Amino acid sequence: MSSSSSSSSTDTKKGTWSKEEDEILKAYVEKHGTRNWNEVSKNAGLIRCGKSCRLRWYNHLQPDVKKGPFSEEEKSKVFEFYIKYGEFKWSKLAHELPGRSDNDIKNFWNARKRKLEKLGLSPFPDNMEPDHKLNSSQQVEDSQEDEFNIPQLKFRKYPSIFDEINEKLLDVPNMFYNNVGSTSTLIDRGSSIIGTSHIHIPIALPSPCSYLPLPSPMMLDENGKKPISLEDDFEANLDDFMDLIDFSNLEDDVEAGSRLFDNDDIYNSNLHDKI
DNA sequence: AACGCAGCCAACCGCCAAAGA
DNA sequence: TTCTTTGGCGGTTGGCTGCGT
Predict the structure, then answer these.
(1) For A105, phi and psi rounded to 5 degrees?
(2) pLDDT tens readout for residues A13-23
(3) Which segments constitute the HTH myb-type domain (predicted)?
(4) In whole angstroms, what is the distance from residue A25 CA to residue A183 CA?
(5) Which CATH architecture group holds A1-63?
(6) Which nucleotide is nearest to A18 (CA to C1')?
(7) Do the domains at A1-63 and A72-118 have one common CATH topology?
(8) Do A162 and A208 meet the contact criterion of CB atoms below 8 Å apart?
(9) What pLDDT shows up at residue A249?
(10) Contact A125/A112 with Cβ under 8 angstroms?
């Protein structure tokens, strides 16, 4: 941040930490611990707010903090986390990467994402295929195999949900499938991942996941109090979960999709947008 | 050598939830 | 039960640095 070490109009200092401040904070925390950061700041004689002390400690001063470029193993863990949970939770991720702070991981990811997306590339590495993306040779094979076939869904965890959704798509008349791998993630109300899939869907149709109501109505336990996590007892809860899926728009979507395929210009522009 | 640009990264900000009074 | 304080988190900012021209 500011290199001016500027003081705010109040009584706390902002900006880059000096070596002296680091030494003071480190010595105090190693001796007294981190029970109350405002106390740490006050008792150590620092003119920094408690929050600032906490950040400095966790990001830079605590033992074992790791600096420098991310190793391949660390990068893999970051990517796997996203695939597993469908989103990034920096603090959770930091627990899986010993020595790395949430801020460090966030910076790594944001920098990578910005850089690669600028080039029109995915921030995920190619070697995550075929689990998470379809590679080009696989796309060719699949397109020959599937051109007039049903959408092919590949599942990692709970295939039955997508099987059910897939059945609803069987009636799609004479569709041309885009054969571009698309990853979708189903997340229940408690943010548990209940399924991740690679889907060949008709290009003009939304992902099966889009038929899920958002946010999903909450399913409660028998006492009506505790939300049920599908991951707790997936098979037992599957029927209830399927009841929540709203297919009322499917017919309209199919019709709209068919019209698109009747119009080459619209189809081509749609295809370009999707790839 | 000077300048401009882009990427990196430390640090701040604001929001929210939990804990405590 | 309500209010206040504190800690934690994610998003964002902007200074620093290295590289190219």
Answers:
(1) -65, -40
(2) 888 899 899 99
(3) 9-65, 66-117
(4) 46
(5) Orthogonal Bundle (1.10)
(6) B10
(7) yes
(8) yes
(9) 52
(10) no
